[in-house]
Design brief:
28% of the residues lie in helices and 21% in strands. The chain has an 8-stranded antiparallel β-sheet with strand order 12-13-14-15-16-17-18-19, with no helix packed on it. Strands 2-1-11-10-9-8-7 form a 7-stranded antiparallel β-sheet, with helices on both faces.
Length: 472
């Protein structure tokens, strides 16, 4: 990395630590799958934290839980459209209705009501915060109290946990991820933290990401809002709510996580599933149209860039991981203050400084080793009515159809084994393209979800709906 870039990055961290009035702040940058820069500032001269210092990462934990759930999905053990009651016994029993004895009947009935409501929600709704579940547990505040106050799932839900119609709007829910953690435990037969360690952390080399702090670890502090004084914050084991925000990690480990979020890893989760997780699954709120949510990942548009990752906060700590797959760059910001430093903006700025100052080189163009004649004959111009399109085939044999002018719908395609193509994005995502041939075997037209594309505008030899006889 160029010295000027390093200086700009360190300056951003220094300003963030000073203006945010945090005891310490660590920033890091990932590029091309590796940690390329890490810098920090501390209130104690000569004792700045490094890439191996643990901080509590709060809700970034949710992205780890989401990866565990998507692994289950990819293995065929669940579907995102499944109701929770299909897999989680507590909610399934509540759905069926349980016999309640005289003693404690009222409490049991109330618990069953909350579990019954949760059991109707789908796995995908919980992942995307569109389930309508309450944002928080019934009191006392789960982040600041021991988890043994909420020993059962019913204790994190309360009497009436659903606040909005399921699937209608984005409403962030910490209890929703407690339910997903319980789902992982049920299907794996081990605590979710154990599943995370063996299935994700160890394969990714993230030995410094743990449920409880391990030295060296930063202490968390509350800084007085009107005076430059501070006091330590207590650390709680949040029990059932741990999947919502329990983890501790380091800049070094989160650099590995950022690289994984961009490219996936064989044996953990494939690149296609990570791309799916980064797609919007929840509508943005009207008050912030530049923010969104995928499947366990926050989305943000900053300076023209689309970022994915997650922010996190717990008493005494703030954290953010952002990645920009288009740039091949990710950034991390970690602070040990309850409030103050804008770690989301700091991480986004670190990413932008790197991507703008030292843009990555695109992969060199290389021709395909071979392409089938059936694909080559389809390459070139096509017309939807009078609108000119081009079909191009890349070196991997993947087609892309897009307008030759600035107006029209474009998509890439995945080639299926039966010879059809499936749209991958935009208006035509999931739609099927069929190559229709005439009686003599020549190509008549392309049928894309009933849209007819022909070699000539309104080709009279093809069944163009609403067309007219040829131009000649």
């Amino acid at each position: 990395m160029l010295p000027a870039t390093r200086r700009s990055l360190l300056h951003r961290v220094a300003v963030g630590q000073r203006d945010g009035r945090t005891p310490s702040l660590v920033g890091a940058v990932v590029r091309d799958g590796a940690l390329v820069w890490c810098g920090s500032r501390s209130m104690i001269e000569g004792h700045a934290p490094d890439a191996d210092t643990q901080y509590r990462i709060g809700s970034i934990t949710k992205s780890f839980v989401a990866v565990l759930v998507m692994r289950l999905r990819d293995e065929g053990l669940l579907d995102l459209a499944d109701p929770l009651s299909r897999h989680l016994p507590e909610t399934a029993l509540a759905e069926a209705g349980t016999a309640i004895g005289t003693a404690g009947a009222d409490a049991a009935a109330l618990d069953a009501a909350g579990l019954r409501a949760a059991g109707r929600l789908t796995v995908g709704q919980l992942l995307s915060h569109t389930s309508g579940l309450a944002s928080e547990t019934p009191g006392p505040w789960w982040e600041r109290t021991p988890g043994d106050l909420r020993p059962e799932l019913a204790d994190v839900l309360g009497i009436d946990p659903v606040k909005h119609p399921a699937g209608r709007r984005y409403h962030y829910s910490n209890p929703g991820f407690a339910l997903l953690g319980a789902l992982v435990e049920q299907l794996r037969g081990v605590p979710w933290g154990e599943a995370l360690r063996t299935e994700v952390l160890e394969p990714l080399g993230m030995a410094r990401t743990t449920l409880l702090p391990q030295a060296p670890a930063a202490g968390g502090f509350a800084v007085h809002p009107w005076a430059d004084v501070m006091r330590p914050e207590a650390v709680q084991d949040t029990g059932r709510m741990a999947p919502a925000g329990q983890l501790w990690s380091t800049a070094g480990d989160l650099a590995r996580w950022a690289a994984f979020l961009m490219a996936g890893r064989d044996g953990v989760l494939g690149a296609a599933t990570l791309e799916e997780m980064r797609q919007p699954a929840a509508p943005p709120e009207a008050s912030d149209m530049d923010a969104g949510y995928g499947l366990g990942l926050q989305l943000s548009r900053r300076g023209g860039r689309l970022l994915a990752g997650h922010t996190g906060s717990m008493p005494g700590f703030l954290a953010t991981v952002w990645v920009s797959p288009q740039d091949g760059v990710g950034a991390i910001a970690l602070a040990n203050a309850t409030s103050g430093p804008q770690v989301g903006a700091i991480a986004a700025d670190l990413l932008a400084i790197t991507a703008d100052a030292e843009p990555g080189l695109p992969a060199a163009w290389r021709p395909a080793d071979t392409l089938g004649a059936d694909l080559l004959e389809l390459a070139g111009p096509w017309f939807w009515g009078t609108n000119a399109y081009a079909l191009r085939i890349d070196a991997e044999g993947l087609p892309r159809l897009g307008p030759l002018t600035g107006q029209g719908r474009a998509t890439r395609f995945h080639v299926e084994q039966n010879g059809t193509w499936t749209g991958r994005e935009g208006y035509f995502a999931g739609e099927t393209l069929r190559v229709v041939r005439a009686a003599d075997g020549s190509v008549s037209h392309l049928d894309l979800g009933s849209f007819v594309f022909t070699r000539e505008p309104y080709d009279p030899s093809a069944p163009v709906p609403g067309g007219f006889p040829g131009w000649h």
